Amino acid sequence: MVVFENVGFRYPGARTAALEGVSVSVRPAELVALLGPNGSGKSTLVRLSNALLSPTSGRVTVDGMDTADEDAVWDIRERVGFIQQNPENQIVGTIAEEDVAFGPENLGVAPAEIRVRVDEALEAVGLAGFQRREPHMLSEGQKQRLAIAGALAMRPAYLVADEPTAMLDPVGRADVLRALRGLRHQGVGVLHVTHHLEDVLDADRVLVLASGAVAFDGTPGELVGDPERALGLGIELPAEVLLADALRRGGVRVPAGHPSAEEIAEALCLS
Ligand SMILES: Nc1ncnc2c1ncn2[C@@H]1O[C@H](COP(=O)(O)OP(=O)(O)OP(=O)(O)O)[C@@H](O)[C@H]1O
Ligand SMILES: [Mg+2]
Fold first, then answer.
1. I want to staple 99 with a disulfide (CB 3.0 to 4.6 A). Which of 93, 118, 126, 244 is the partner?
2. How far is the CA of 216 from the centre of ligand 1 (A)?
3. According to the model, what pLDDT value does residue 89 have?
4. Conformation bin of residue 63: beta by default, left when phi > 0, alpha when psi is -120 to 50
């Protein structure tokens, strides 16, 4: 489990803390979404989870290892995979299989085992058969899935992804979201930073940061069911949720939660 215990962080020379009193956790096989406005501390929290930063106060542990313990840093980075926003920055190989093999090669994994891991990782992100493709010829969404495969080949227990879909078109975005969702079935705990609640409606939990503190820790359903609260947290709700909420207030009997466009149309026809 990745555990933040009353964590504070201040960048050197900064007047205010980027994070303060943050206590959150990510379990194996759990998909946790992290939302919040620009500058609320999401990327800082991500960097603290894989020992790129050490907390100024409090403690961050990964399966019991303290990220402030310098001897544990490499074990922690092996355990916590990291996906950035720009897929271009993450490509290291000239063909896909070389790219995915890079991490395990650095870990000293045996070549036969690397072969197995590369094929499994590409399959897990929907890129089976792409072994010999050149990464720069792939779409942005495929590049991002290649980056996820590269992280998976290290057999991480957790994956933190900082706005992995921000630079993708709708198709690339949907493919990457599907790949991230699939990781739960492989037992990988995922922390997914995004600005879109719509991307993470199926998350096990949603955390919302506001000015460096946790303003919400609950299920996506709780946010969707309380549009006023979501809006207060600066969260953009899916269009159907807003429409359903407005219709309900106008007396139309729309199903609770997040109804589909069809369900809304049906409710309107029956009213
Ligand atoms: N390297 C840095 N040095 C100093 N201050 C920083 C640094 N990086 C971030 N900050 C500050 O820390 C706070 C949190 O920033 P952070 O990047 O974690 O926010 P974020 O939620 O990821 O924002 P965004 O949605 O724009 O990516 C902000 O006030 C930011 O200006
Ligand atoms: Mg950020």
1. 93
2. 19
3. 86
4. left
User: And the tokens for 191?
Assistant: 């922390």
Residue with CA nearest ligand 1 atom 29? 39
For the CA of 46, the nearest atom of ligand 1: 18
- How much distance in Å is there from the Cα of 54 to the middle of ligand 2? 17
pTM above 0.85, yes or no: yes
* Domains of the chain with CATH codes: 2-224 (3.40.50.300), 238-271 (no CATH)
Is the model's pLDDT at 245 over the cut of 90? no
Nearest to 87 by CA among 140, 47, 149, 130: 140
Render pLDDT for 178-193 as a digit per residue (tens, 0 to 9): 999 989 888 999 999 9
- C-beta of 48 in contact with ligand 1 (< 6 A): no
Q: What is the pLDDT of residues 146-157, one digit of tens each?
A: 999 999 999 999
Nearest to 258 by CA among 225, 218, 219, 217: 225
Q: Counting every residue, how long is the chain?
A: 271
Cα–Cα distance between 196 and 185 in angstroms, integer?
23
Residues near ion ligand 2 (CB < 5 Å) are 42-43
Q: What is the pLDDT of residue 36?
A: 96
